[in-house]
Structures are given as structure tokens and as C-alpha cells.
Automatic annotation (TrEMBL):
The keyword Membrane applies. Keywords: Membrane, Transmembrane, Transmembrane helix. It comes from the Eukaryota. This is Uncharacterized protein. The keyword Metal-binding does not apply. The chain crosses the membrane at residues 32-50, 95-118, 151-176, 182-211, 232-253, 273-293.
Amino acid sequence: MENKSIPRSHSSLGFFEIIKESFKTTSRNGKVLVPIMLFVFVSFSLLDFAEKYLLAPVVKDTVLQLTIHPNMIQDLSNSIDQNMYAGALNDVREIVLVELLMMASSSIITLTFLVAIVSSSYEAYTAKVLSSKDLNSIIMKSWKRPLETSFYMGLLSLGIVFLYFISFGITAILAVNSWALMFIGVIILTIPVCYIYMATLWMVSMVVSVLEEGYGGVKAIGRAAELMKGKRLQASLMMVLFSVAYCVVNQMAIPLTSYNLSMTTQLAIRIPFTNGLFCLVTLFMFVVYTIFYHEWKTSHDEKEGKGFYLPIAAGEV
């Protein structure tokens, strides 16, 4: 790793300036990012192809079973004639097993993608160069912290979803009038706001987990919330931007499946197209929040008189 210059304070960067700096950092770090991007793109595409071809005959057989036995779900829920539906139950088990395997594989790829992009982008932004050996060393040492953080953020998100269900249930049971409907309307309006904030907190927590030694799980979430003070709106607006980008990619993929093409042709066109765009959007999101983190950390340290924060050196990994 070679240090080319000393990082300067940019804590006054605004929303669009951070976008600009993110483009510059991505361009400057292209030699590192392109191989990572290609690896992730190919990995996700192969997973999608494998999933579709593994599940296509199983799903077809399950649909056939439902057509032949329209009362199958009701019979199974009542524990009636389960031997008759042994084939359908095996199909369901196979679908669940394949989906769990795909989820685990996707999580591993995404985690590696996150650690590699955040680490290399931070070094590039602070005018440093990471070699492949340095990057591999950082990935091997850092992957456990973001995994732990993601687990706790998942639990926190499930808890919030549970609270929403409880709120809806209590309101529906205790009162049925205009005030109750208004209260339910207010709750519904808070859902997208809560979703965006939680997604933002999750993203910042993951960046903290990668870049700061000793910060993982609940500690990383608390650290992220602390750094986001006064910048929540800016960070959340960026998440809104990326959410819109993901929706646009999904909508662009719909026409590709509307033509009367074979499944193989549709997959050959749609999967590379959507995965390529998703990988690009995700890569840029990781870079943007890495730059955000640097600005928040610099500003936070300046206020506390700690000076500038330097990323983990490869020699320390």
C-alpha cells in the first residue's frame, strides 16, 4: 500500500459534492473495482441461471399437483391424506432448500462485495493504493464484523415490523371510527419513512463495521447512529435516490419478459441486463456511503479535536 498524500478535511461537502467525489473516486479506483464488479456480476448471473433451471421443473410439477388436487393445501393444513401429497411435499422441500442455498450464496457474495468496495474506495478517496494482497487480507479479517452487524440489524428490522403489526391490530380491535382510520393512515405514512431510515442506518452500520476495528453488531449500529446526527436527512435522501434507481432497473426489465420468447432466451437477455445494472447501482451506493462516512467521521473528529481518521493500514491487518 502506498500513501500518496495526506487526506484533507472535506467535512463541508454537500449532497451533490459527495456525488461528484464518489464519481471521481470510482474512476480513480477503476483498476481495483472492475475485477470485483466482474466477479460479482458473473457470480450473481450464474446463481440466477442455476436457480431458474433447478426450480423450473419443480415449480411446474407443484402447479400440476395443485391443478389435479385443488383442495391439497386445505387437506394438508388439516393433516388429511398427507401420503397422497408426498410428491408435492417433496417439491416444496426442494424449493425451500434451493432458495435457502441461493440466499446463503448471495449473502456471501454481497458481503465480499461490500467489504472489497468499501475498503478499496476509502483508501482511494484518501489517496492511497490497495494491492490485491492488501485487499484480500482486509476481506479475510473484516468479514465477521459486517456479518454480525447485518444479523442485529435484521433483528431490529423484524422488531419494528412486529410493532407495526401490533399497532394495526390494537387499533383495529379497540376502535372502528374515523379517528382509528386516521391513526392507521398515519401509521401507513410512516412506513416508507421508517424503511428509508432503517435502510440508511443499515448501510452506514455496515460501512462502520468494515472500516473501524472493534465495531460490529450493536456497537456498530450505535456508532452509525452517532455519526449520522445532523446528517440523517442527507443520508436518507441518498437512500431514496438509490431506491428509485433500483425500481427503475426493475421496470426496465419488465419489457424484456413481455415478448413471446423461450425461457432460455428470456434468461439470457434479462439476467445479464438486470444483474449488470444492479451491480453498478450497488457498487456506486457502497462508494457514496463510504464517502459519506469519511465526511461524518472527519466532522465528528474535528468537533472533538481528534484530527483526521485514517483507514486501517494493510500492514496492520
